[in-house]
């Protein structure tokens, strides 16, 4: 687990973050245990702890792109990008971006959707962090990686909620 491997086991910040996330049963559909981060955003200390942990993790890894998955990736991604000196790329729902876009469809736990990104937003060989809130089916992560041209980038996927800072790091290009 990310916390144990990175010296965060027992870190009181993780407890504060976990306590700040509200679980809403049966939302948006029966059987779903929705992890509501709006309560985390109301707690400025827990929100800052969340950003600080990611910044500490990635500040010295020459990350050039932080891609945030709509919508919750937009809440954390720009702050992380700004703090580590990277650009922020929004991965949006269909029809939300002006100009030329590329898109990728994916399956959700309770339906299907599509992500879009501006053409040319990422350059080959950039180092990318994908920020989203959790991994349910893996469809969103797969779509995000496809949009970003996963075979060309080093991708770090960070889940804000799942396992509280569980990070799945995927080295997708061995020639960086």
Automatic annotation (TrEMBL):
Subcellular location: Cytoplasm
GO cellular component, one term: cytosol
Residues of the Phosphoribosyltransferase domain: 44-148
Catalyzed reactions: AMP + diphosphate = 5-phospho-alpha-D-ribose 1-diphosphate + adenine
Pathway: Purine metabolism; AMP biosynthesis via salvage pathway; AMP from adenine: step 1/1
Gene Ontology annotations of biological process type: adenine salvage; purine ribonucleoside salvage
Keywords, alphabetical: Cytoplasm, Glycosyltransferase, Membrane, Purine salvage, Transferase, Transmembrane, Transmembrane helix
Source organism superkingdom: Eukaryota
Entry GO MF terms: adenine phosphoribosyltransferase activity
Transmembrane segments: 134-157
Pfam family of the protein (one): Pribosyltran
Main localization category: cytoplasm
EC number: 2.4.2.7
Summary of subunit composition and partner proteins: Homodimer.
Family membership noted in the UniProt record: Belongs to the purine/pyrimidine phosphoribosyltransferase family.
Matching PANTHER family: ADENINE PHOSPHORIBOSYLTRANSFERASE (PTHR11776), ADENINE PHOSPHORIBOSYLTRANSFERASE 5 (PTHR11776:SF22)
Protein name, as recorded: adenine phosphoribosyltransferase
Species assigned in the record: Arabidopsis suecica
